[in-house]
Design brief:
Chains A, B: It comes from Thermococcus barophilus (strain DSM 11836 / MP). Chains A, B: It catalyses: a pseudouridine in rRNA + S-adenosyl-L-methionine = an N(1)-methylpseudouridine in rRNA + S-adenosyl-L-homocysteine + H(+). Chains A, B: Keywords: Methyltransferase, Ribosome biogenesis, RNA-binding, rRNA processing, rRNA-binding, S-adenosyl-L-methionine, Transferase. Chains A, B: This is Ribosomal RNA small subunit methyltransferase Nep1. Two copies of one chain form a homodimer. Chain A has eight helices and eight strands, in the order βααααββαββαβαββα. With about 220 residues, chain A is α/β, with parallel strands linked by helices. Chain A folds into two domains: about 170 residues, Alpha/beta knot (3-Layer(aba) Sandwich); about 35 residues, no CATH class. In chain A, strands 4-5-3-2-1-7-6-8 form an eight-stranded mixed sheet, sandwiched between helices. In chain A, a hairpin with a 6-residue loop joins strand 4 and strand 5. The radius of gyration of chain A is 17 Å and the shape is globular.
């Protein structure tokens, strides 16, 4: 069983200090929501992001969307051998049941995240997604993996297929992929740093490489 | 070099006979476009789709978006060993330069497709995407692959890693993946039908499996 953690993901409600920024107010109005209910999105809140610390990397629910769409529709997940978690800025953790069908439409996915940050659980009956206050380290203490790998530009280089073989040697390995567009992890975690390519890769590309190569090793 | 063709993709401008449907008219108005300029989208034109032949599978630019986001950010593409083509309903072919950075935001991607269907080339100077009238067979005649594989539910079962090894035996193999949500290809093409899993897979999942396993075979 592979535990895949998308960590320090840039998904969050619009922060307090830009709630009155015109880019945010107009966007919320257009969508019929209150400014404090909408998820920060760099495509639409670009002007407001300039006022935020780390503004050049925040507001990227699209990265999480791509990672989840790929992970949950993978052969590995269909075979019941994958658990996916999304850890976000401000230390929330989203638990996702393996049978969840993530909305294909981006706007609906954002709507789902808004509902999740508001209600902590969606949908109320099936509880496919659940949001809890938790740091990355607390999540790892809970999962209790027998190995922790951090996908990192400065990690030890390893061919993707060799990494699949390495993962196979553990019963419950955890692989941590950064859910941000560039820069480094903000959370401090102990683990073996691994790099799969000579250049930085997008989060969803790493997700695909890890999942397919783990499948090849275990099936 | 792998030639990846997303075929019979459900991307098209809104067809004539539903241009006056309220679902289409309101959507176009909201986006500040003419109804004939917008791309059919099942999320927003659901009511209108019921009036169309094959209405239950049409209007899926999201599938093409996921396939392109994965393919173009893959290690294979970064290494210059991938060419991607999108063939659509009504026999258009979209050529995509390998260096293209597809918009991550879905709404911007749809805007790009609208611009492409209108102007045949985007952006005017770099010509990263180009649209031509062409059948799937005409595209294959042009590419001249030395093998053609069709990813198909009823194809010969092969483990994904074995399929990677098979592809490696050719210099310029073409792999055809259906760019539709369910059902069969509408185009008739000769090729070896291959199935990678006992259940149907999403188009982007097949794209990921094919690309990563081809990488593993050739690198």
């Amino acid at each position: 069983m592979l535990h895949l953690i998308i960590a320090d993901s840039e998904v969050e409600p619009v922060p307090k200090n830009i709630l009155e920024h015109p880019a945010v107010v107009n966007y919320a109005k257009r969508r019929g929501k209150k400014p404090e209910e909408v998820i920060l999105d760099s495509t639409y809140h670009h002007a407001a992001l300039k006022k935020l610390e780390d503004g050049n990397r925040r507001g990227r629910p699209d990265i999480v969307h791509f990672c989840l769409i790929n992970a949950l529709e993978s052969i590995l997940n269909k075979e019941g051998m994958l658990r996916v978690y999304v850890h976000t800025r401000n230390d929330k953790v989203i638990y996702i049941k393996p049978e969840t069908r993530i909305p294909r439409n981006y706007n609906r996915f954002v709507g789902l995240m808004e509902s999740l940050f508001k209600n902590k659980v969606v949908p109320p009956d099936l509880e496919l997604l659940k949001l809890e206050e938790k740091t990355l380290n607390q999540l790892l203490e809970e999962i209790k993996p027998d190995a922790v790998f951090i996908m990192h530009e400065q990690g030890e280089f390893m061919k993707p297929k060799d990494f699949g073989q390495l993962l196979k040697q553990f019963k419950e390995p955890a692989v941590i992929v950064g859910g941000f567009p560039h820069g480094d992890f903000k959370s401090k975690v102990d683990g073996v740093k691994i790099s799969l390519y000579k250049e930085p890769l997008m989060a969803w590309t790493i997700v695909n490489e890890v999942i397919v190569n783990y499948e090849n090793a275990i099936f």
